[in-house]
Amino acid sequence: MLIKGAQMNKSTKQTLKLNKITKTFITMGTLALAFSGYAQEQQTAADIAADKSAENVELIQVTGIRSQLTQAVATKRDSVQFVDAISADDMGKLPDANVAESLQRVSGVQLERGIGEGSAISIRGLSQNVILVNGRQVTTAGGRGDKGPDTLESSSYSMLSLIPSSLVSSLEVSKLPSASEIEGALGGIVNIKTRRPLDNDGQKFVASATGSYNDLSEDNGSELSAYYSNTFLDNTLGIQVAASSSSATFQEEGLNTFSGYSYDASVTPDPADETLVFNDIRYWEINDKRDKVGLNAMVQWQASDSLELYLDTFYSKVDSDRERYWTGFWTCCGYENTEISNNGVLTSGTVNRPVQANTEFAPAYMEFASTALGFKWYANDWEVTGEFAYTDSTSNSQQDFMRFQTAVSAEVDFDLLAGDDAPDVTFGDADLTSPDGLNLAIVYDNTSYNETTDAAAKVDVTRFFDGDFLTSVNFGGRANTLDTSHDYVARAITPNFALTDLPQIYTMYSNNNFFSGDGPAVNDQYLIVDKSKWKGCTTLSDYYDAAGTAECATTHDLSPSYKIKEGIVALYTQANFASELGGHNISGNFGVRYVQRDLTSEGHSEDVATGVATPFTTKVSHSEFLPSAVVKMDLTDDLVLRFGAARTLTFPDTSDLSSGIFVRGDFTANGGNPELDPFIINQLDFAAEWYFGESSILSAGVFYKDVESFIVNTIQPRDLPNYSQQVFVEQPINGESGTIQGLEVLYQQAFTSLPSFLKDTGIMATYSFIDSETPFEDGRGNSLPIPGLSENNINMVAYYEVESFGVRIAYNWRDDYLGYLGAGDNGVFYKSYQDLAVTANYKINDNVSLNFQAVNLLDTRQKQYAAYEEAIQRNVEFGTTYKMSVSVNF
């Protein structure tokens, strides 16, 4: 990744941007005043009071889709901060497949997909966000920025995929943190809330059973969930237990790659011509069976009028049994019959290469347990809350990878433009359906283990006032230690045993409708490893001995292994106010947060030539002040303006902080960088919100983020222990600054004034435009945006609901976005993506209801290209999933 040079004077650029933001603020204010006039014409004071009274009743009594939207609007309206919310109508049943997919309904939130479902999110283009469960931070096994134990580019094991949606009561996204909120969110803070037992008096029991079917995997799945709560001692003691268990198989079929594209000067006779070549064309099928378990238990005790105690625990685990099969070849050398696009991409040709049939077994698990013990004490004008929380997260992944490869080369023809982003490939006379002529060419047997523990204690004190301006002052602190360890054990051999000389470890893969018939014929049938007969490298022990070859050895690879310990102390003070200005109610807060971090990173400097690993420890300290302020102005009872500014911080991803360095024989190396400074952003926000009904809102907001430093990769000389000269180490460093700015629009309305059945309909729509300027540019000098950021994102939800029946249609679209930088510093881009989901529910009686879901109805293929659209390198499909459930409520 290259650091971009200045193209104009930096102060000039900042002036232009600030002028643009200022003009936008003025325009938004003008619109807000226009809304104000219109709103005052539409409602009298009596109407407003009546509406507020009705709202207070219906927030408790109404269930269903409209209730979810009404509660979400109330949360946004009442909050001083910039907050969006998603509410569930009962027991924590979200209207989407999982937590991540529900969050994409929030304007400015964009979804990253794993296999078959949403997995992770970015908020306003940034993935550095904080995930809370009932207000406490939870971290996965790989530490900050971890996406889980995945061998693929996209992740299926992020924190949001670990939490069963059936246990969730509501989701809140805060986009501009106050001083009292936890640090670490550049995009936003996501708070995942479960119910509390004292929310309702008496006994409550809810259970549901769900069956599912995926039309690509042709597999049935199931889910069971239950919730029980009860209160005792005159409703001062409450207990609750919620549990969920699910099993489903996800599938992916299509084109993908490991090595992607690179430049090759041998394609044309002129060695000065470098052609972009698709090195590693793979058509694969992934079957991923996931078993997920979730548990939430809470005890809540109102010990006295002034003291409340609680114990809250949350546990989740995902077990994945993944199989991946593919054919492939390495594009290289002696090109014939070539066609090259105007952009210099090799789009078709013929090469003589060995061809492969590949098998990967990649079982993995990931789990976390988080427990909190807390209290709230209040007397007179004081309130004190405290909590101690402990989270332990672990993950383990194994990779058994075996390659069958032809002993002689075959004439391979390929054409990238033969179909709709589905290249045609033929393997000449090669036969991958017979063991004759095939070798067992490669065997990998690798294991990766991660564990992170997070112990945190916090105390918050509030002093209330009766003055005309200052309503309260908060102050407090939080201390936590975050310990992460990563260990890696590898076995790798290239035996090149003839398959006919080995026991029958193979079986036949067959899929006559692979990739809906768009894949090449070579992928319909080929030999793979029989899972029932493969026991890792030891499967071949007798054959190593007979051949006089050393058995595949275990290598404890110390260079990528590390231990990282962070101690973070945060102190804050915040003043909260409420008053009048020009006859309008205003409220808000201002404050400052101080953060101190001490880091110890333990790794190894490993010499590839000698295999000697030298312990290498780095200690770093960093501190920062983070001021913030927000003002909320009620122009009318229905029209709200918000202004906010904050300085936010997050520390680099844990994996980037490793001290481990792998040194090659030519005194070059690669490794982490524990001396990285944190990401810091200075942020401005403005929003205008018109609440023109109980569940209706029209809002628009603009934001501007000044990013003080991005993290980029570079090569720099370093002095390392036991080396007589400097070593040139490729590692992440703090690069130049950049900016992010955007517009977010939300429109939500219940059409209760329309005639006939239309009065029972409604809509929710969001749109966001997010632009960025970064120090990154590709190999051709073109500026690049932030990876994972789509400029345009649209989400729409339409619903129809009567007392016993409701249906909801949800559509989401995001445009192209940069995935990462590939060979030659070329940007690798994802094409635009859209999805459509439908939910319908039928209430049989007060206690029993049915629910139907259809997810990914458009079955959109996820496509990816390298620099130019003809350089396709990913095109996969996941299939549509259908779910039917029955719920009981007592």
UniProtKB/TrEMBL annotation:
SUPFAM superfamilies: Porins. Gene3D superfamilies: TonB-dependent receptor, beta-barrel domain (2.40.170.20), TonB-dependent receptor, plug domain (2.170.130.10). Residues 398-857 form the TonB-dependent receptor-like beta-barrel domain. It is found in: Cell outer membrane. It holds the Pfam family TonB_dep_Rec_b-barrel. The keyword Cell membrane does not apply. Residues 76-189 form the TonB-dependent receptor plug domain. GO terms for cellular component: cell outer membrane. The keyword Magnesium does not apply. Keywords: Cell outer membrane, Membrane, TonB box, Transmembrane, Transmembrane beta strand, Transport. Belongs to the TonB-dependent receptor family. NCBIfam families: TonB-Xanth-Caul (TIGR01782). This is TonB-dependent receptor. It comes from Paraglaciecola arctica BSs20135. The lineage of its organism: Bacteria, Pseudomonadati, Pseudomonadota, Gammaproteobacteria, Alteromonadales.
